Amino acid sequence: MKKFFLMFFLILFCSLAFFGEKISFNADYMYGSVGNSNEKTILERNATISTDSFRITANFIELEGDNYRYVTASGYVSGNSKKSGFDFWCDKLFYDRETKLVYFEGNVTLKDTTEDVEAHSQLMEYDLNTEIALLQVNVTLNKNQNKGSGALAVYKKNEKTVDLTGNPKIVRGEDIFTAQKITLNIETEEIILDGKVSGNVKSGEN
Fold first, then answer.
1. Could you list the residue range(s) of the whole structural domain that residue 49 is in?
2. Digit-coded pLDDT (tens) for 63-87
3. Cβ atoms 148, 128 nearer than 8 A
């Protein structure tokens, strides 16, 4: 087994090609081991990894599994999906580079820079293949004058829609809309209310 150890102040940069894509990483401090069936590398302080489709920065990043399949990041985690134009921030992240599934935990913020949408939650699952994000627990959504909330949101990037459920609500200026399910078109800003629909709309002055 080959072992390696890099001390503080030594900036590491490594570029490798796995799962059909290149992975690059750098940090102030690195240690780990490489074996025939398993590889594990720890990056600390100013740690960054970047693939063809995804970039992650954190205080602590662990790369594990065959061909560095699994990535775990914690401590001021941030990054972006290069393909979709999503920027994100969270407390902890887990990324499976083979399935392209990303799991976010704690104070999650998702910002769609192409559509000017910002969402917040405590948990999120993001599929890089379908570009669908599932946000859970204390979900809030901001799109121009639309302020949405609910227990769960499904953000479909390609369809340009967000489905809110779990006591969902949309506030638009002084207007308030509630239903069992609310769908917001992030391009046209039209909303669809489904089930137990109610609203409080202020009419314009004559």
1. 1-82
2. 988 878 899 999 999 999 887 888 9
3. no
